[in-house]
Structures are given as structure tokens and as C-alpha cells.
Amino acid sequence: MTTEPSAYHRRVAEEKRNAILKAATRLFLDSGYAGASLAKIADAAGVSKATLFKQFPTKAALFDAIVTASWETGEDTGERPPVGDLDAGLATIGRRYVALLTRPGMADLFRIVIAELPRFPELGETQFNRGKMPYFESVRGYLETERDAGTITLDDPDLAATQFLGMISNYVFWPRMLLQDWAPDEAAMDRVVDEAVLVMRARYAR
């Protein structure tokens, strides 16, 4: 007969998991994916190797968890906007995307993937399949519901989602990968979202 862990033990396990994810992200960035061993990560997180292996039996599983956690929007912010008001819906999605891309550590995560891609191509696949694609699919799904409701004319949902997200990330995120002092203020990022919404309305609204 098995018993469920108590609330205390669940809280302790979650705290240790978060400590492991934080330590692993920092070590991956400082030492590279290859140079950050699970033993070093356990030491940096202040947990035993047995505790780390219980939660993450391989380095790949640990990196997968980091990517998934980094792209999660949370239940309170990740719900699809109501259908029928394209401007409001796209503005909501656009601002969520800005908040996601400017999270602490998001640029660092991309740098890890890019730096290690020649030796570990699976890192790129993880970032794409576990991170970017689920978010992309949620945006595409929203556009499809607007199309089905008759508010927009849409032949290629994939292209439309790429256009919208690309207009935002090209200003908010990608310069950060090369320019250390790139930090546009909130007003500038809001304007980018608003302009992207206007372009989408001009192109797709009925």
C-alpha cells in the first residue's frame, strides 16, 4: 500500500526541483552544456546526487525541463483571448509574448542552445519542440478561431502566426542576442505590439 506524500514533502521536493533548475541553467551558461555535469549541478543546487537523479535521470531530461519551464505562461495568463475582437485579442497575445521574451534567463537559454548546437543538435530540437512550437500553436489556434468566427480571412494560419510573432520578436528579443545594452523601455515595446496589431488587421480583418 502506497501513501501520498504530505504537503510538506511536496513543498520540499518542489523547492529542490526549482533549486536544481536554477543551478543547472547557470552552470549550462557558464560552462556550456558539455561542461556542466550532473554532479556539479547537484553541488551547486545544494542537493545530493541521488535527489537530482531521482528527478532528472539524465542531463537531457534536465534541459528539457528547463526549456519547458521557461516557455510556460501559466494558467492565469495563458488562456486564449475571447473571440470577436481581433485588435484586443492580438494585443493581449502580443503583450504576453513580450513578457515571455523578456523574462530573466530567456535570452541566456537561447545562447546556450546556439553555442552548443554544433555538438548537441538535440538541444535545438528540444528548444523548438518543447518551447517555441507549443506557444506558436496557441497563437495559430487563436487566429483559426477568429477565422471560423468570420472576423478575419485567413488562408495560411502558420504564416499569419509567424508574421505576428516575428514583428514583435524582431524588435524585442533578437537584438538582445548580439547587443548587451539592448533594453527597450515598456512604451517602446507596447508600440511595437500595437503596430503589429494594426498590420495584422490591415492584412486579415474582414
TrEMBL record:
InterPro entries: Homeodomain-like_sf (IPR009057), HTH-type_TetR-like_transc_reg (IPR050109), HTH_TetR (IPR001647), Tet_transcr_reg_TetR-rel_C_sf (IPR036271), TetR_C_Proteobacteria (IPR039536). The keyword DNA-binding applies. The keyword Nucleotide-binding does not apply. Residues 37-56 bind DNA. Keywords: DNA-binding. Residues 14-74 form the HTH tetR-type domain. It comes from the Bacteria. This is TetR/AcrR family transcriptional regulator. It comes from Actinocorallia longicatena.
